[in-house]
Amino acid sequence: MYEHLESTFLTAVEQNQHKLLRVCSVYAEDADDKKDLFQEALINIWQSLPSFENKSSISTWMFRITLNVCMRLQMKQAKKRDRFRKLDSLTIGSVREEEPNLEDNERLIHLRNCIKTLNDADKAVITLCLEELSYKEISDITGLSENHVAVKIKRIKIKLLNCLKEKI
Length: 168
Fold this sequence. Notes:
mainly alpha; 7 helices; globular
């Protein structure tokens, strides 16, 4: 039993790791954050694997877990930031944001920044869309109807185009 789970897990991770990492990058503040989110997602996927019921594809199921991990950790971080906001005035010096990877072009950087400004629901939908998941798969992951997914994607694309126009 254990060997089958391990084999299933390793195969699924190998097939989906790049996509899951990209999902994590949308919610991450920096490269270390992305790695932490990805690691936390993998731990959750491994721990949940015995309860996987094959009601959807394993990749759809992994996306759902990864999104839940990212959103849960994002909420925790927001609470921490709010709690320690008062202490910011006491810190010496300033904290710099990590520079984006040099290979990323300017347009991609702007798009990522625009995606990060979206609310959690929109961010999840557009991230899955960018991973080329079908409306059905996005529907299964988010719990929205396929029609609602289609409408949301259209509206999100308009928001992102407007945001990009402002940045470029």
